[in-house]
Amino acid sequence: MPTVAIIHHSGTGKTAMLAKAVADGARSVAGTTVSELAIDGKKITDGRFADDTLFAQLDAADAIIFGSPTYMGMVSGQFKCFADATAGRWFKQAWKDKLAAGFTTSGSPSGDKQGTLLYLATLACQHGMVWVSSDAMNEVYLGKDPAVAMNRLGSTIGVMSQVAPTPEGKPTDGDNATARNLGARVARLAAKR
Ligand SMILES: Cc1cc2nc3c(=O)[nH]c(=O)nc-3n(C[C@H](O)[C@H](O)[C@H](O)COP(=O)(O)O)c2cc1C
Q1: What pLDDT is stored for residue 1 in this prediction?
Q2: Can you list the domains of the chain with their CATH numbers?
Q3: Per-residue pLDDT reduced to its tens digit, 28-70
Q4: Are residues 123 and 83 in contact, defined by beta-carbon separation less than 8 angstroms?
Q5: How far does residue 42's CA lie from ligand 1's centre (Å)?
Q6: Which residues, including other chains, have CB under 8 Å from residue 87's CB and lie 6 or more apart?
Q7: Ligand 1 site-directed mutation target among 18, 105, 106, 168, most atoms within 8 Å of CB
Q8: Residue 24 CA, distance from chain mean position
Q9: Measuring from each residue's beta carbon to the nearest atom of ligand 1, which residues come in under 6 Å?
């Protein structure tokens, strides 16, 4: 049965909330082993992230779901330091044919977070991974209240959540459902391979 790894960075905990929903979704598929991994900025030296135990878990996974907050229209610096540290895997194409997917949070409704998801997809494609889209229908079109509608922001490359940048801010129920849907989709597809 498949192993799905979720690797994310989160500065103030918002993206971590979405990561938890992605993990819950993956875990909802019977027989799936889920690795929940976080990028610790303290493990970055001279711009390069290092954590052998974390990388061993990614190497062992059938699918990797990447998550980052949107900082200045892109992934966070901490996530980019992690991505740069995957170059050794790229050189050996060690992650070729693994499934991949992604998610992000931002403070503004747009916040240029499409750029973050495009970067995550580019990272996966550089590794020869197979990118899994987010197939949740925008339920606002079905008449649902945006607070509970899945995919209210209408993103298909990956999961987007806009979270108020306040201590109480958290993803909407619909955003969490969208994240769970992605985790479950990746786990189901991984189990079929
Ligand atoms: C350095 C920095 C840059 C940011 N840049 C953007 C941005 O470009 N667009 C946006 O909408 N929000 C931006 N934000 C807000 C974060 O995307 C938002 O608060 C996010 O949910 C934080 O996630 P985290 O708690 O996982 O770090 C930025 C926040 C920080 C700290």
Answers
A1: 86
A2: 3-192 (3.40.50.360)
A3: 999 999 999 999 999 999 999 999 999 999 999 999 999 999 9
A4: yes
A5: 19
A6: none
A7: 106
A8: 13
A9: 10-16, 69-73, 105-108, 111-112, 163, 165
